[in-house]
Amino acid sequence: xxxxxxxxxxxxxxxxxxxxxxxxxxxxxxxxxxxxxxxxxxxxxxxxxxxxxxxxxxxxxxxxxxxxxxxxxxxxxxxxxxxxxxxxxxxxxxxxxxxxxxxxxxxxxxxxxxxxxxxxxxxxxxxxxxxxxxxxxxxxxxxxxxxxxxxxxxxxxxxxxxxxxxxxxxxxxxxxxxxxxxxxxxxxxxxxxxxxxxxxxxxxxxxxxxxxxxxxxxxxxxxxxxxxxxxxxxxxxxxxxxxxxxxxxxxxxxxxxxxxxxxxxxxxxxxxxxxxxxxxxxxxxxxxxxxxxxxxxxxxxxxxxxxxxxxxxxxxxxxxxxxxxxxxxxxxxxxxxxxxxxxxxxxxxxxxxxxxxxxxxxxxxxxxxxxxxxxxxxxxxxxxxxxxxxxxxxxxxxxxxxxxxxxxxxxxxxxxxxxxxxxxxxxxxxxxxxxx
Length: 436
What we know:
By secondary structure, the protein is of the alpha/beta class. Helix content is 35%, strand content 24%. It folds into three domains: 4-134 and 303-322, NAD(P)-binding Rossmann-like Domain (Rossmann fold), CATH 3.40.50.720; 138-299, Dihydrodipicolinate Reductase, domain 2 (2-Layer Sandwich); 343-433, Alpha-Beta Plaits, CATH 3.30.70.260. It has helices at residues 13-24, 26-33, 65-68, 86-95, 105-110, 112-122, 138-145, 160-172, 176-185, 194-197, 200-213, 233-242, 303-322, 362-372, 402-413, and strands at residues 4-9, 37-43, 60-61, 75-78, 99-102, 126-127, 151-157, 224-225, 244-255, 258-269, 281-288, 292-299, 347-348, 350-356, 377-382, 391-397, 400-401, 423-427. The strands form three sheets. Strands 7, 8, 9, 10, 11, 12, 14, 15, 16 and 18 form a ten-stranded mixed sheet that branches. A six-stranded parallel sheet has the order 3-2-1-4-5-6, sandwiched between helices. A two-stranded antiparallel ribbon has the order 13-17. The radius of gyration is 24 Å and the shape is elongated.
């Protein structure tokens, strides 16, 4: 049985997981594949630090070129992260007709068209199952299981750090800073958590999912992105009273010729399938025109879950090579770029919280401004009085245009009717998407 060789570039957390699976589960993979998938080379600037796994010294190198240039290594794994030199290494390997597997969401989000084009021109295959959702096979679901569908919408909880923080705040009553520290202590958040809590990580992943689902390129810079640092305990408490939970949601919708893509804190009904996804787990809720709603759920990060997705891509490519199909059995189509709906044009219901002085006429003044901007109020909640302090006024609106909501809140914030900037959380709800 002729083996298929693999070279790994990047021996960090995920790289070590891939090496571990290829070495320790070699017999299992060979039995299921029908021939050996052999680790031939591991490249990293640091090949001396103990990764907790024994790798023969002959397989280690500090020169990525030994992987890319070797004609006997048809499959390359890129796990160094970042944009450069990851982009250069990936383009070089694809240009040689090699299959490249990556977990690099930032690289894909920033250079989608270039990488897909290089894959098609060079005859190589670009595998990126591990770039979104860790071990959740969402890329394979879009490429294969749902290939006969026009994808109508994607709603995803695709950042475990933010989901963990919001879960701990909601279930334990922790404030944001305390929940963030807990996430860092547990190893779920980096020392600099900005990419997670500001929504950037989820935006990278949404750019990949939306581009693949809608056969286009969704530029990262056109995805509206808002993080969770402005969410307070009072918002989570009131949401619960109203029958909602708050999640950092990645939303993509195909409407006509345009695509909607946004990441922001969102209220969803308690009965929605996504509402039960807690802590560091991820879930992606996809609606296709033929299959209807589909939910994929699992751990969205971690060395071995992500490594599992990398090896799945390698197995698929290796099987294609052995059957004579080369490393590229799947073609990524790139239609003419579809326009992205500006966030200002998006319509959805909103939760709006005002902190206002407790005096007559405040509610009428706020309602009047909203009415002038054609924002219809669905319900109002006003909390009890505390002498000398501001009181929260919460309004749930019917579907409203984002630009109108922003203009109204700016006007209200400039008046003497609030003591702090208003808090606005968008609402996604549909009876047919509820589990109840």
